[in-house]
C-alpha cells in the first residue's frame, strides 16, 4: 500500500514537471514573437522575397494582401496580427514603395505573381502622398538645423569720417559703443570763409582758398595748404 502511494506521488510530480515545461515552452513562444515593426518588415522580406524587400526597388503589392499574410504568418506564430497590420501600413507608406506605384505597373501577391493592374486613381494618390511626406520631412530638417548667430557689423553703417568712441573695462573688454557724427556744411561754402577742417583727432582752423567741385583747398592758420573734401568741413 505504501509502495503504491509512493508511485502515485512520483507520477504526480512528473505530471507537474511536464505541465511546467509545457507552460514554459508556451511562454517562450510568446516571448519570441517579433514586436518591432522594422524587424517584422525584414521578416516578411525573408519569408516572401518575391513580394517584399528592404532595399532596391519595391513591388506594388496586391490589394487585400493582409488576409493572405495573416494566414501564412499565423502558422509560424512569430507575428501578431496587430503588429503585422502596423508593419504593412509602414511598408506601404515608405517613399520607396510609393515610388513603385506607377502607370502600367502590376501588383503582386505574396508569392510574386502578378495579379492586377494599378489604377490611375491609386497612382495619383501615391504621388500626392509622396510629395506631402517629402515636404514634411524637409520642414522637420529645417527646424532641426542649427541657426547661425548673425552678429551685426559695428562699422557697417559708420559714416565716413566718424569715429567709434569705445569705453573699455579694466580688462580691455568693450562694454559700450557710441558713434559721434560731426555735422557737415552742405551750403554756404565759399572762398575766403573761415572754417574748421576735420583732420586727425581734432579739427584745424583755416581759410578756404579754392573750391573745385567737391574738393576744397584750405590754408590753415599755421600756414599749411590742405586739399580736402567738403564733407571734412565741420562747424
UniProtKB/TrEMBL annotation:
Compartments (UniProt record): Cytoplasm
Primary location recorded for the protein, binned into one broad class: cytoplasm
Stretches assigned to the ProQ/FinO domain: 32-146
Positions with biased composition (Basic and acidic residues): 128-140
GO cellular component terms listed in the entry, alphabetical order: cytosol
Composition skew (Basic residues), residue ranges: 141-150
UniProt-listed SUPFAM superfamilies: FinO-like
GO biological process: post-transcriptional regulation of gene expression
Stretch list, region Disordered: 1-24, 128-174
InterPro entries per record: ProQ, ProQ/FinO, ProQ/FinO_sf, ProQ_C
Primary role: RNA chaperone with significant RNA binding, RNA strand exchange and RNA duplexing activities.
Protein name listed in UniProt: RNA chaperone ProQ
Species the sequence originates in: Saccharobesus litoralis
Amino acid at each position: 500500500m505504501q509502495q503504491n502511494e509512493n508511485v502515485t506521488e512520483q507520477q504526480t510530480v512528473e505530471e507537474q514537471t511536464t505541465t511546467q515545461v509545457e507552460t514554459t515552452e508556451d511562454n517562450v513562444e510568446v516571448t519570441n514573437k517579433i514586436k518591432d515593426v522594422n524587424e517584422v518588415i525584414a521578416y516578411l522580406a525573408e519569408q516572401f522575397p518575391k513580394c517584399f524587400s528592404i532595399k532596391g526597388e519595391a513591388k506594388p503589392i496586391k490589394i487585400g494582401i493582409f488576409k493572405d499574410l495573416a494566414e501564412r504568418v499565423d502558422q509560424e506564430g512569430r507575428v501578431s496580427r496587430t503588429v503585422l497590420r502596423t508593419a504593412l501600413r509602414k511598408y506601404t507608406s515608405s517613399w520607396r514603395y510609393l515610388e513603385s506605384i506607377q502607370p502600367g505597373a502590376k501588383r503582386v501577391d505574396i508569392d510574386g505573381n502578378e495579379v492586377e493592374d494599378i489604377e490611375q486613381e491609386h497612382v495619383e494618390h501615391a504621388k500626392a502622398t509622396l510629395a506631402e511626406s517629402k515636404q514634411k520631412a524637409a520642414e522637420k530638417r529645417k527646424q532641426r538645423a542649427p541657426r547661425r548667430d548673425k552678429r551685426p557689423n559695428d562699422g557697417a553703417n559708420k559714416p565716413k569720417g566718424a569715429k567709434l568712441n569705445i569705453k573699455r573695462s579694466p580688462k580691455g573688454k568693450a562694454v559700450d559703443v557710441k558713434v559721434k557724427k560731426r555735422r557737415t556744411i552742405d551750403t554756404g561754402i565759399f572762398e575766403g570763409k573761415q572754417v574748421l577742417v576735420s583732420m586727425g583727432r581734432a579739427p584745424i582752423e583755416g581759410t578756404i582758398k579754392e573750391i573745385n567741385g567737391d574738393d576744397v583747398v584750405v590754408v590753415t592758420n599755421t600756414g599749411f595748404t590742405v586739399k580736402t573734401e567738403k564733407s571734412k568741413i565741420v562747424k
